[in-house]
Design brief:
This protein is mainly alpha-helical and 450 residues long. It has 22 helices and no strands.
Amino acid sequence: MRNNKYLLYSTIVAALGGLLFGFDTAVISGTTGWLEKTFQLSSFWLGFTVASALIGTIVGAISIGKPADKYGRKNVLFIIALLYLISALGSAFSWDWYSFLFFRFIGGIAVGAASVVSPLYIAEISPAKYRGRLVAVTQFNIVLGMLLAFFSNYIITELNLGDIEWRWMFGVETIPAALFFILLFRNPNSPRWLIAKDRLEEAKLVLEKFGTDNGSVEEEVKEIQASLVSELNRPDEPLLSKKYIKPIMLAVAIAMFNQLSGVNAIWYYAPHIFKMAGAGSESAMLQTVLLGGINILLTILAMTVIDKYGRKKLMLIGSVGYLISLSLVAWAFYTYGTDFTDTGSTIVLAGLLLFIASHAFGQGAVIWVFLSEIFPNKVRAKGQALGTFTHWFMAAVISWTFPMIAEISGGHTFAFYAICMVGQLLWVIYIMPETKGVSLEQIQKKLGIK
Protein backbone atom coordinates (compact mmCIF):
# COMPACT_ATOMS: atom_id res chain seq x y z
CA MET A 1 0.00 0.00 0.00
CA ARG A 2 1.70 3.19 -1.20
CA ASN A 3 -0.18 5.91 0.63
CA ASN A 4 -1.89 4.85 3.85
CA LYS A 5 -2.91 8.39 4.77
CA TYR A 6 -4.64 9.12 1.45
CA LEU A 7 -6.44 5.78 1.48
CA LEU A 8 -7.58 6.35 5.06
CA TYR A 9 -8.69 9.91 4.29
CA SER A 10 -10.70 8.82 1.24
CA THR A 11 -12.25 5.99 3.25
CA ILE A 12 -13.26 8.22 6.16
CA VAL A 13 -14.76 10.88 3.88
CA ALA A 14 -16.77 8.32 1.88
CA ALA A 15 -17.89 6.79 5.16
CA LEU A 16 -19.34 10.15 6.24
CA GLY A 17 -22.28 9.02 4.14
CA GLY A 18 -22.59 6.32 6.79
CA LEU A 19 -22.29 8.82 9.65
CA LEU A 20 -25.22 10.78 8.23
CA PHE A 21 -27.04 7.49 7.62
CA GLY A 22 -26.68 6.70 11.35
CA PHE A 23 -27.57 10.21 12.50
CA ASP A 24 -30.61 10.47 10.24
CA THR A 25 -32.05 7.11 11.22
CA ALA A 26 -31.45 7.54 14.97
CA VAL A 27 -32.39 11.18 15.48
CA ILE A 28 -36.12 10.44 15.19
CA SER A 29 -36.00 8.29 18.36
CA GLY A 30 -35.93 11.45 20.47
CA THR A 31 -38.80 13.07 18.63
CA THR A 32 -41.54 10.41 18.56
CA GLY A 33 -43.34 11.84 21.59
CA TRP A 34 -43.28 15.36 20.14
CA LEU A 35 -44.41 14.16 16.71
CA GLU A 36 -47.27 12.20 18.27
CA LYS A 37 -48.36 15.34 20.16
CA THR A 38 -47.72 17.94 17.41
CA PHE A 39 -49.45 16.04 14.61
CA GLN A 40 -52.03 14.17 16.79
CA LEU A 41 -50.90 10.71 15.64
CA SER A 42 -52.30 7.29 16.58
CA SER A 43 -49.88 4.36 17.04
CA PHE A 44 -50.54 3.33 13.42
CA TRP A 45 -49.74 6.78 12.01
CA LEU A 46 -46.78 7.24 14.34
CA GLY A 47 -45.37 4.00 12.93
CA PHE A 48 -46.03 5.28 9.41
CA THR A 49 -44.35 8.61 10.19
CA VAL A 50 -41.24 6.84 11.45
CA ALA A 51 -41.33 4.49 8.45
CA SER A 52 -41.69 7.36 5.94
CA ALA A 53 -37.94 7.82 5.85
CA LEU A 54 -37.53 4.06 5.50
CA ILE A 55 -39.79 4.07 2.46
CA GLY A 56 -37.36 6.62 1.06
CA THR A 57 -34.43 4.32 1.83
CA ILE A 58 -36.08 1.59 -0.26
CA VAL A 59 -36.35 3.99 -3.21
CA GLY A 60 -32.77 5.21 -2.71
CA ALA A 61 -31.29 1.74 -2.39
CA ILE A 62 -33.04 0.18 -5.37
CA SER A 63 -32.58 3.14 -7.75
CA ILE A 64 -28.97 4.17 -7.06
CA GLY A 65 -27.19 1.27 -8.80
CA LYS A 66 -27.49 2.59 -12.37
CA PRO A 67 -26.51 6.20 -11.54
CA ALA A 68 -23.51 4.89 -9.56
CA ASP A 69 -22.44 2.85 -12.58
CA LYS A 70 -23.09 5.61 -15.11
CA TYR A 71 -21.85 8.73 -13.31
CA GLY A 72 -19.41 7.22 -10.82
CA ARG A 73 -19.48 6.51 -7.10
CA LYS A 74 -17.89 9.84 -6.15
CA ASN A 75 -20.33 12.01 -8.13
CA VAL A 76 -23.31 10.18 -6.64
CA LEU A 77 -21.89 10.77 -3.13
CA PHE A 78 -22.06 14.54 -3.84
CA ILE A 79 -25.77 14.22 -4.65
CA ILE A 80 -26.34 12.18 -1.49
CA ALA A 81 -24.72 14.91 0.62
CA LEU A 82 -27.08 17.51 -0.88
CA LEU A 83 -30.12 15.32 -0.19
CA TYR A 84 -29.07 14.99 3.47
CA LEU A 85 -28.78 18.78 3.72
CA ILE A 86 -32.19 19.40 2.13
CA SER A 87 -33.83 16.81 4.39
CA ALA A 88 -32.33 18.22 7.60
CA LEU A 89 -33.39 21.79 6.83
CA GLY A 90 -36.80 20.77 5.52
CA SER A 91 -37.61 18.53 8.51
CA ALA A 92 -36.60 21.29 10.93
CA PHE A 93 -38.74 23.91 9.19
CA SER A 94 -41.64 21.66 8.09
CA TRP A 95 -44.97 23.50 8.27
CA ASP A 96 -47.32 20.52 8.54
CA TRP A 97 -47.34 16.71 8.73
CA TYR A 98 -47.28 16.30 4.95
CA SER A 99 -44.24 18.52 4.47
CA PHE A 100 -42.50 16.70 7.32
CA LEU A 101 -43.17 13.33 5.64
CA PHE A 102 -41.83 14.68 2.35
CA PHE A 103 -38.53 15.89 3.79
CA ARG A 104 -38.07 12.71 5.84
CA PHE A 105 -38.68 10.77 2.63
CA ILE A 106 -35.91 12.80 0.94
CA GLY A 107 -33.58 11.97 3.82
CA GLY A 108 -34.52 8.32 3.46
CA ILE A 109 -33.49 8.38 -0.21
CA ALA A 110 -30.09 9.70 0.89
CA VAL A 111 -29.75 7.00 3.56
CA GLY A 112 -30.68 4.21 1.15
CA ALA A 113 -28.31 5.51 -1.51
CA ALA A 114 -25.45 6.02 0.97
CA SER A 115 -25.86 2.51 2.37
CA VAL A 116 -25.15 1.22 -1.16
CA VAL A 117 -22.56 3.67 -2.49
CA SER A 118 -20.34 4.40 0.54
CA PRO A 119 -19.30 0.76 1.21
CA LEU A 120 -19.24 0.07 -2.55
CA TYR A 121 -16.78 2.92 -3.13
CA ILE A 122 -14.58 1.90 -0.21
CA ALA A 123 -14.51 -1.76 -1.28
CA GLU A 124 -13.36 -0.71 -4.75
CA ILE A 125 -10.46 1.47 -3.54
CA SER A 126 -9.22 -0.99 -0.87
CA PRO A 127 -6.56 -3.72 -1.23
CA ALA A 128 -8.03 -7.10 -0.16
CA LYS A 129 -6.00 -7.45 3.05
CA TYR A 130 -7.38 -4.15 4.38
CA ARG A 131 -10.82 -4.25 2.79
CA GLY A 132 -12.77 -5.68 5.74
CA ARG A 133 -11.47 -3.04 8.15
CA LEU A 134 -11.85 -0.18 5.69
CA VAL A 135 -15.38 -1.05 4.58
CA ALA A 136 -16.21 -1.51 8.27
CA VAL A 137 -15.32 2.18 8.72
CA THR A 138 -18.74 2.79 7.16
CA GLN A 139 -20.34 0.79 9.96
CA PHE A 140 -18.20 2.62 12.53
CA ASN A 141 -19.42 5.93 11.13
CA ILE A 142 -23.01 4.68 11.14
CA VAL A 143 -22.82 3.88 14.85
CA LEU A 144 -20.88 7.09 15.55
CA GLY A 145 -23.66 9.00 13.78
CA MET A 146 -26.25 7.21 15.89
CA LEU A 147 -24.37 8.00 19.10
CA LEU A 148 -24.06 11.64 18.05
CA ALA A 149 -27.82 11.74 17.36
CA PHE A 150 -28.67 10.20 20.75
CA PHE A 151 -26.26 12.54 22.55
CA SER A 152 -27.50 15.56 20.59
CA ASN A 153 -31.11 14.65 21.44
CA TYR A 154 -30.20 14.32 25.12
CA ILE A 155 -28.45 17.72 25.18
CA ILE A 156 -31.37 19.42 23.39
CA THR A 157 -33.81 17.78 25.85
CA GLU A 158 -31.77 19.25 28.74
CA LEU A 159 -32.14 22.75 27.21
CA ASN A 160 -35.94 22.60 27.72
CA LEU A 161 -36.77 24.29 24.41
CA GLY A 162 -40.42 23.26 24.52
CA ASP A 163 -42.45 22.73 21.36
CA ILE A 164 -39.51 23.50 19.02
CA GLU A 165 -37.27 20.90 20.66
CA TRP A 166 -37.85 18.30 17.94
CA ARG A 167 -37.07 20.83 15.20
CA TRP A 168 -33.62 21.46 16.66
CA MET A 169 -33.00 17.72 16.82
CA PHE A 170 -33.49 17.44 13.05
CA GLY A 171 -31.77 20.73 12.20
CA VAL A 172 -28.43 19.79 13.76
CA GLU A 173 -27.83 17.36 10.88
CA THR A 174 -27.10 20.24 8.49
CA ILE A 175 -23.58 20.58 9.97
CA PRO A 176 -22.22 17.08 9.10
CA ALA A 177 -24.11 17.13 5.77
CA ALA A 178 -22.32 20.33 4.66
CA LEU A 179 -18.98 18.95 5.88
CA PHE A 180 -19.49 15.74 3.89
CA PHE A 181 -20.11 17.69 0.67
CA ILE A 182 -17.01 19.89 1.08
CA LEU A 183 -14.57 17.10 1.98
CA LEU A 184 -15.60 14.93 -1.00
CA PHE A 185 -13.72 17.20 -3.43
CA ARG A 186 -10.37 15.59 -2.49
CA ASN A 187 -11.56 12.01 -3.06
CA PRO A 188 -10.62 10.30 -6.37
CA ASN A 189 -12.93 8.19 -8.49
CA SER A 190 -13.02 4.44 -7.87
CA PRO A 191 -10.28 2.70 -9.93
CA ARG A 192 -12.62 -0.16 -10.88
CA TRP A 193 -15.23 2.31 -12.14
CA LEU A 194 -12.51 4.18 -14.09
CA ILE A 195 -11.37 0.93 -15.72
CA ALA A 196 -14.98 0.05 -16.60
CA LYS A 197 -15.14 3.45 -18.36
CA ASP A 198 -11.81 2.75 -20.13
CA ARG A 199 -10.05 5.58 -18.27
CA LEU A 200 -6.99 3.44 -17.61
CA GLU A 201 -4.38 6.11 -16.92
CA GLU A 202 -6.53 7.72 -14.23
CA ALA A 203 -7.18 4.29 -12.72
CA LYS A 204 -3.46 3.50 -12.61
CA LEU A 205 -2.73 6.73 -10.76
CA VAL A 206 -5.37 5.88 -8.13
CA LEU A 207 -4.07 2.30 -7.75
CA GLU A 208 -0.49 3.62 -7.34
CA LYS A 209 -1.67 5.81 -4.48
CA PHE A 210 -3.89 3.22 -2.76
CA GLY A 211 -1.96 0.00 -3.42
CA THR A 212 -2.84 -3.30 -5.10
CA ASP A 213 -3.51 -6.92 -4.12
CA ASN A 214 -0.58 -8.40 -6.06
CA GLY A 215 1.98 -5.56 -5.87
CA SER A 216 1.74 -4.64 -9.55
CA VAL A 217 -0.51 -1.90 -10.91
CA GLU A 218 -0.37 -3.34 -14.43
CA GLU A 219 -1.35 -6.84 -13.24
CA GLU A 220 -4.15 -5.41 -11.11
CA VAL A 221 -5.54 -3.51 -14.09
CA LYS A 222 -5.43 -6.67 -16.24
CA GLU A 223 -7.24 -8.73 -13.59
CA ILE A 224 -9.95 -6.10 -13.21
CA GLN A 225 -10.30 -5.82 -16.99
CA ALA A 226 -10.67 -9.60 -17.24
CA SER A 227 -13.50 -9.58 -14.70
CA LEU A 228 -15.18 -6.74 -16.60
CA VAL A 229 -14.75 -8.07 -20.13
CA SER A 230 -18.33 -9.33 -20.49
CA GLU A 231 -19.63 -6.05 -19.11
CA LEU A 232 -17.71 -4.08 -21.72
CA ASN A 233 -19.41 -6.18 -24.39
CA ARG A 234 -22.80 -6.01 -22.68
CA PRO A 235 -23.19 -2.82 -20.60
CA ASP A 236 -26.65 -3.72 -19.32
CA GLU A 237 -25.74 -7.04 -17.72
CA PRO A 238 -28.88 -8.16 -15.82
CA LEU A 239 -28.47 -9.06 -12.15
CA LEU A 240 -31.49 -11.33 -11.96
CA SER A 241 -30.09 -14.30 -13.84
CA LYS A 242 -29.28 -17.90 -12.92
CA LYS A 243 -25.52 -17.42 -12.74
CA TYR A 244 -25.86 -14.84 -9.94
CA ILE A 245 -28.29 -16.87 -7.84
CA LYS A 246 -25.72 -17.62 -5.11
CA PRO A 247 -24.74 -14.02 -4.30
CA ILE A 248 -28.37 -12.90 -4.67
CA MET A 249 -29.58 -15.45 -2.11
CA LEU A 250 -26.71 -14.61 0.24
CA ALA A 251 -27.43 -10.87 0.01
CA VAL A 252 -31.18 -11.25 0.56
CA ALA A 253 -30.66 -13.62 3.50
CA ILE A 254 -28.16 -11.50 5.45
CA ALA A 255 -30.26 -8.36 4.85
CA MET A 256 -33.52 -9.99 5.98
CA PHE A 257 -31.97 -11.49 9.10
CA ASN A 258 -30.43 -8.12 9.97
CA GLN A 259 -33.85 -6.54 10.35
CA LEU A 260 -35.69 -9.60 11.70
CA SER A 261 -33.51 -9.18 14.79
CA GLY A 262 -35.61 -6.06 15.49
CA VAL A 263 -32.54 -3.82 15.60
CA ASN A 264 -34.06 -0.84 13.79
CA ALA A 265 -37.23 -1.00 15.87
CA ILE A 266 -35.02 -0.85 18.95
CA TRP A 267 -33.04 2.10 17.60
CA TYR A 268 -36.12 4.07 16.51
CA TYR A 269 -38.14 3.37 19.65
CA ALA A 270 -35.44 2.90 22.32
CA PRO A 271 -36.74 5.68 24.64
CA HIS A 272 -40.29 4.32 24.17
CA ILE A 273 -39.14 0.78 25.07
CA PHE A 274 -37.38 2.01 28.20
CA LYS A 275 -40.54 3.91 29.19
CA MET A 276 -42.53 0.69 28.67
CA ALA A 277 -40.08 -0.89 31.13
CA GLY A 278 -40.70 1.78 33.76
CA ALA A 279 -38.08 4.47 33.00
CA GLY A 280 -38.82 8.20 33.14
CA SER A 281 -38.38 10.47 30.08
CA GLU A 282 -34.92 11.81 30.98
CA SER A 283 -33.71 8.38 32.13
CA ALA A 284 -34.97 6.82 28.89
CA MET A 285 -32.94 9.31 26.83
CA LEU A 286 -29.83 8.68 28.92
CA GLN A 287 -30.19 4.90 28.62
CA THR A 288 -30.48 5.33 24.84
CA VAL A 289 -27.15 7.20 24.85
CA LEU A 290 -25.70 4.23 26.77
CA LEU A 291 -26.88 1.89 23.99
CA GLY A 292 -25.13 4.14 21.47
CA GLY A 293 -21.91 4.01 23.52
CA ILE A 294 -21.91 0.20 23.69
CA ASN A 295 -22.65 0.13 19.97
CA ILE A 296 -19.58 2.16 19.06
CA LEU A 297 -17.22 0.31 21.43
CA LEU A 298 -18.14 -3.13 20.08
CA THR A 299 -18.00 -1.84 16.50
CA ILE A 300 -14.41 -0.70 17.08
CA LEU A 301 -13.57 -4.12 18.52
CA ALA A 302 -15.16 -5.88 15.52
CA MET A 303 -13.21 -3.67 13.10
CA THR A 304 -9.91 -4.73 14.67
CA VAL A 305 -10.62 -8.45 14.24
CA ILE A 306 -12.85 -8.76 11.15
CA ASP A 307 -9.90 -9.40 8.81
CA LYS A 308 -8.18 -11.70 11.31
CA TYR A 309 -11.06 -13.96 12.39
CA GLY A 310 -13.31 -13.46 9.37
CA ARG A 311 -16.90 -12.46 8.73
CA LYS A 312 -18.44 -15.84 9.57
CA LYS A 313 -17.00 -16.13 13.09
CA LEU A 314 -18.23 -12.65 14.01
CA MET A 315 -21.71 -13.53 12.71
CA LEU A 316 -21.70 -16.74 14.74
CA ILE A 317 -20.83 -14.94 17.99
CA GLY A 318 -23.39 -12.21 17.26
CA SER A 319 -26.14 -14.73 16.51
CA VAL A 320 -25.69 -16.48 19.87
CA GLY A 321 -25.71 -13.08 21.61
CA TYR A 322 -28.94 -12.17 19.81
CA LEU A 323 -30.67 -15.32 21.06
CA ILE A 324 -29.64 -14.81 24.69
CA SER A 325 -30.44 -11.08 24.81
CA LEU A 326 -33.77 -11.15 22.98
CA SER A 327 -34.95 -14.11 25.06
CA LEU A 328 -34.01 -12.21 28.23
CA VAL A 329 -35.94 -9.08 27.22
CA ALA A 330 -38.96 -11.16 26.13
CA TRP A 331 -38.91 -12.96 29.51
CA ALA A 332 -38.80 -9.63 31.36
CA PHE A 333 -41.87 -8.30 29.52
CA TYR A 334 -43.75 -11.57 30.02
CA THR A 335 -42.89 -11.52 33.74
CA TYR A 336 -43.48 -7.85 34.59
CA GLY A 337 -46.04 -6.84 31.93
CA THR A 338 -46.94 -3.21 32.55
CA ASP A 339 -45.93 -3.26 36.23
CA PHE A 340 -42.13 -3.07 36.11
CA THR A 341 -40.00 -2.97 39.26
CA ASP A 342 -36.45 -1.59 39.37
CA THR A 343 -35.21 -5.16 38.90
CA GLY A 344 -37.34 -5.66 35.80
CA SER A 345 -36.18 -2.35 34.32
CA THR A 346 -32.55 -3.33 34.94
CA ILE A 347 -33.08 -6.68 33.21
CA VAL A 348 -34.48 -4.94 30.12
CA LEU A 349 -31.56 -2.49 30.07
CA ALA A 350 -29.04 -5.33 30.48
CA GLY A 351 -30.75 -7.38 27.77
CA LEU A 352 -30.78 -4.51 25.30
CA LEU A 353 -27.13 -3.66 26.04
CA LEU A 354 -26.19 -7.29 25.30
CA PHE A 355 -28.35 -7.18 22.17
CA ILE A 356 -26.63 -4.05 20.84
CA ALA A 357 -23.20 -5.47 21.71
CA SER A 358 -24.08 -8.65 19.78
CA HIS A 359 -25.34 -6.65 16.82
CA ALA A 360 -22.33 -4.34 16.70
CA PHE A 361 -19.84 -7.24 16.86
CA GLY A 362 -21.78 -9.43 14.40
CA GLN A 363 -24.36 -8.28 11.85
CA GLY A 364 -23.60 -4.58 12.23
CA ALA A 365 -19.92 -5.00 11.42
CA VAL A 366 -20.35 -7.66 8.74
CA ILE A 367 -23.38 -6.80 6.57
CA TRP A 368 -22.01 -3.87 4.56
CA VAL A 369 -18.62 -5.57 4.14
CA PHE A 370 -20.24 -8.83 3.01
CA LEU A 371 -22.63 -7.14 0.56
CA SER A 372 -19.77 -5.18 -1.01
CA GLU A 373 -17.74 -8.38 -1.56
CA ILE A 374 -19.99 -11.13 -2.90
CA PHE A 375 -21.03 -9.67 -6.28
CA PRO A 376 -18.79 -9.54 -9.39
CA ASN A 377 -17.53 -6.15 -10.62
CA LYS A 378 -20.00 -6.01 -13.49
CA VAL A 379 -23.10 -6.20 -11.26
CA ARG A 380 -21.69 -5.09 -7.90
CA ALA A 381 -23.64 -1.82 -7.71
CA LYS A 382 -26.88 -3.57 -8.71
CA GLY A 383 -26.24 -6.46 -6.32
CA GLN A 384 -25.46 -4.20 -3.39
CA ALA A 385 -28.57 -2.19 -4.24
CA LEU A 386 -30.66 -5.38 -4.08
CA GLY A 387 -29.23 -6.38 -0.70
CA THR A 388 -29.70 -2.86 0.65
CA PHE A 389 -33.24 -2.67 -0.74
CA THR A 390 -34.08 -5.89 1.12
CA HIS A 391 -32.57 -4.46 4.31
CA TRP A 392 -34.59 -1.25 4.14
CA PHE A 393 -37.80 -2.90 3.02
CA MET A 394 -37.65 -5.14 6.09
CA ALA A 395 -36.68 -2.16 8.25
CA ALA A 396 -39.80 -0.31 7.11
CA VAL A 397 -42.03 -3.30 7.88
CA ILE A 398 -40.50 -3.88 11.33
CA SER A 399 -40.48 -0.20 12.31
CA TRP A 400 -44.01 0.50 11.08
CA THR A 401 -45.51 -2.46 12.91
CA PHE A 402 -43.56 -2.17 16.17
CA PRO A 403 -45.79 0.43 17.94
CA MET A 404 -48.93 -1.58 17.19
CA ILE A 405 -47.48 -4.99 18.19
CA ALA A 406 -45.78 -3.58 21.31
CA GLU A 407 -49.14 -2.22 22.45
CA ILE A 408 -50.43 -5.79 22.51
CA SER A 409 -47.40 -7.45 24.14
CA GLY A 410 -43.75 -6.50 24.54
CA GLY A 411 -43.05 -10.16 25.32
CA HIS A 412 -44.54 -11.39 22.03
CA THR A 413 -42.55 -8.76 20.11
CA PHE A 414 -39.12 -9.75 21.43
CA ALA A 415 -39.94 -13.49 21.40
CA PHE A 416 -40.69 -13.22 17.67
CA TYR A 417 -37.32 -11.54 17.04
CA ALA A 418 -35.58 -14.29 19.05
CA ILE A 419 -37.22 -17.05 16.99
CA CYS A 420 -36.06 -15.34 13.77
CA MET A 421 -32.49 -15.35 15.08
CA VAL A 422 -32.58 -19.15 15.35
CA GLY A 423 -32.89 -19.04 11.56
CA GLN A 424 -29.90 -16.70 11.26
CA LEU A 425 -27.74 -18.98 13.44
CA LEU A 426 -28.52 -21.98 11.21
CA TRP A 427 -27.82 -19.91 8.06
CA VAL A 428 -24.44 -18.78 9.38
CA ILE A 429 -23.41 -22.32 10.36
CA TYR A 430 -24.49 -24.14 7.20
CA ILE A 431 -24.64 -21.64 4.31
CA MET A 432 -22.65 -18.41 4.78
CA PRO A 433 -19.24 -18.49 3.00
CA GLU A 434 -16.07 -16.87 4.37
CA THR A 435 -14.65 -13.98 2.29
CA LYS A 436 -11.78 -12.66 4.42
CA GLY A 437 -8.47 -11.96 2.67
CA VAL A 438 -9.77 -12.86 -0.81
CA SER A 439 -9.67 -10.39 -3.72
CA LEU A 440 -13.01 -9.28 -5.15
CA GLU A 441 -12.18 -11.06 -8.40
CA GLN A 442 -11.28 -14.32 -6.59
CA ILE A 443 -14.53 -14.24 -4.56
CA GLN A 444 -16.35 -14.26 -7.91
CA LYS A 445 -14.54 -17.50 -8.81
CA LYS A 446 -15.11 -18.96 -5.33
CA LEU A 447 -18.89 -18.58 -5.82
CA GLY A 448 -18.66 -20.33 -9.20
CA ILE A 449 -19.48 -17.25 -11.29
CA LYS A 450 -17.83 -17.18 -14.72
